[in-house]
């Protein structure tokens, strides 16, 4: 990667996550090579870009302008031959990823930064067959990557610290909020938290305490709103009054430990999946995926804009 | 309670939660009787109202105007004698609450709606000594009640359905988003979800995967933002693409069950509380509680405003 901000990025895979990266990189003026084995890749990407262009952070973009920054190169070696950054979005299959990284490493310039969107495999797993895996870094986005700011950055035992620093700088340059994990942990941080919450959500709906719609309404109108503005630790630090988190934990710690004992442990049987699937279709409909996704993303952008407005007022005062 | 919207509300207890209700009810033009045993209650409430007035939904209010709607009545029987609605915020002590409800029931008009902010005790517990507990309903707010929209509404086995309906209508009339629980469950819904997430947050910080600040940054920039706009079920329904939640669970269900096995189980030892307390003080400071709380609430209001802006645009289009 050259000293300045990279200008040539290769995106491998054009599924939902790949598409989000493609839209984001193009919107930030990068030249994007799209590598996909889907025969119809160009048509699908250009078509989907129209939807993504509506929900770009900072306001809608011209889809034709975004599409003009893309070049479709179905051959992997050719696609990465001149890349400064590669963002890989292949399926979560260990053998497939290992083979892919062997092929990428053989064809990409030695200075290229090799970023993986994987949500499950640290660099030690996907780059284990490489002689020098020093520039392989996980850059795990949250869906959709063009909207949600977080990127979890994860290095492996042989990753160069410099590569981590470059990944952080690169993601910041396209408006992301990177957080570097200090230790590998299965499924990284955000998905573990999401999984912990979802377990209790499924329990409460299965038990008939609330419907799915009511559960979602509870979350959006309390903890979701709270956690969009302050994280859980800051929230409880403030909840403790002048004594902070220490006071909160001292007063409520026993109740908190007790509450952990009381959390539910649902089983995802076929019957349970059927029940939840049917309830979701009934509650949110089916066949309206694109419209609901656009709505979600417009709302998410509105929240981001509102919060950055408050931040900049604060800095000026 | 009379047929129209209540105009006379008695708030019992003027701690943090009571104060939030007082501010909210006054801002909605209700006549508020404040019943508190603190000798300095009037001075404290009027002083704190200044802070709350800054962060009222819809914009700052004149604290003197809010204060003008309050009357301080230290004697409980007198305070509830003419109430249409009572919102009780006494400490979470079962015996204390039971005695309190005996005294309230003896002095309040028979038609008064008796609402409790308790976060732990369903009506069957706090009203068990009453001959007729039919009008006792839990209305559990999220802190601070003048900002966070959710109120969890919980009835008991002897609660009148009409009282639940009146509680819902009353909370809606002051801008809240009530959700009625269909079954009692310990700690209700939102706090159980919060507790599930916090358990994993503490685990990850204790294990050194991320610092407290990094953990909070992960949440605010991914799942917090997401859950402010769509609840977890809608989020995964959209995450499943055209196949919805059913497809998502069918593809990722096994991984999800596996992830539940991998969640952490921290113990809240004294040492752990010390560690987290010190980290919170270092990260967020101490002695700046009021300023950080105002900042949190301005941000939360900005998010609420942004989302209601999007909703009304959508309805017009």
Provide a compact summary of the structure.
Chains A, B: It comes from Micromonospora endophytica. Chains A, B: GO terms for molecular function: NAD+ binding; oxidoreductase activity, acting on the CH-OH group of donors, NAD or NADP as acceptor. The structure is a homodimer of 317-residue chains. Chain A is 54% helix and 11% strand.
Walk me through the topology.
Two copies of one chain form a homodimer.
Chain A (H helix, E strand, L loop, with lengths): L7 E5 L3 H12 L3 E5 L5 H14 L8 H5 L2 E3 L3 H5 L4 E4 L5 H14 L5 E4 L6 H4 L9 E6 L8 E5 L6 H13 L3 E4 L9 H17 L5 H9 L2 H7 L2 H8 L4 H19 L7 H15 L4 H28 L1
Parallel strand pairs in A: 1-2, 1-4, 2-3, 4-5, 5-6, 7-8
Antiparallel strand pairs in A: 6-7
Task: Give the integer mean of the pLDDT values of chain A.
Answer: 95
CATH top level class name of the largest domain in chain A:
Alpha Beta
Q: What's the tally of helices of chain A?
A: 14
Most extensive chain interface and residues per partner: A-B, 113 and 113 residues
Beta-strand share of residues of chain A: 5-15%
Low-confidence stretches of chain A: none
Return the structural class of chain A: alpha/beta
Number of domains of chain A: 2
Distance separating the two termini of chain A:
39 Å
Number of strands of chain A: 8
Main sheet strand line-up of chain A: 3-2-1-4-5-6-7-8
Provide the helix percentage of chain A: 40-55%
Reading the helices and strands of chain A in chain order gives EHEHHEHEHEHEEHEHHHHHHH
Q: Main beta sheet of chain A, described?
A: 8 strands, mixed
CATH H-level superfamily title of the largest domain in chain A: NAD(P)-binding Rossmann-like Domain
Protein name (chains A, B): Hydroxylacyl-CoA dehydrogenase
GO biological process, one term (chains A, B): fatty acid metabolic process
Keywords (chains A, B): Oxidoreductase
Pathway (chains A, B): Lipid metabolism; butanoate metabolism
């Amino acid at each position: 990667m050259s000293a300045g901000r990279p200008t040539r990025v290769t995106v491998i895979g054009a599924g939902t996550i790949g598409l989000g990266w493609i839209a984001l990189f193009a919107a930030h003026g990068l030249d994007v090579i799209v590598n996909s084995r889907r025969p119809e890749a160009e048509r699908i990407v250009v078509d989907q870009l129209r939807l993504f262009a509506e929900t770009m952070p900072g306001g809608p973009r011209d889809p034709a302008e975004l599409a003009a920054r893309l070049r479709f190169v179905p051959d992997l070696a050719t696609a990465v031959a001149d890349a400064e950054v590669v963002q890989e979005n292949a399926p979560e299959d260990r053998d497939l990823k290992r083979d892919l990284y062997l092929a990428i490493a053989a064809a990409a310039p030695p200075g290229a930064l090799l970023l993986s969107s994987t949500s499950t495999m640290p660099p030690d797993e996907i780059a284990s067959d490489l002689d020098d895996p020093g520039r392989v870094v996980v850059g795990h986005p949250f869906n959709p990557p063009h909207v949600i700011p977080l990127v979890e950055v994860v290095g492996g035992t042989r990753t160069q610290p410099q590569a981590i620093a470059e990944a952080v700088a690169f993601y910041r340059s396209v408006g992301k909020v990177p957080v570097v994990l200090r230790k590998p942990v299965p499924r990284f941080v955000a998905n573990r938290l999401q999984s912990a919450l979802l377990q209790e959500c499924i329990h409460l709906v299965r038990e008939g305490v609330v419907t799915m719609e009511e559960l979602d309404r509870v979350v959006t109108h309390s903890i979701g709103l709270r956690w969009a503005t302050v994280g859980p630790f800051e929230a409880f630090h403030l909840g403790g009054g002048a004594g902070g988190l220490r006071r909160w934990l001292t007063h409520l710690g026993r109740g908190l430990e007790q509450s952990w004992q009381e959390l539910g442990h649902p089983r995802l049987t076929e019957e349970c999946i059927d029940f939840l699937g049917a309830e979701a279709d009934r509650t949110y409909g089916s066949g309206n995926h694109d419209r609901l996704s656009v709505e979600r993303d417009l709302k998410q952008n509105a929240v981001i804009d509102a919060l950055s407005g408050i931040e900049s007022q604060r800095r000026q005062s």
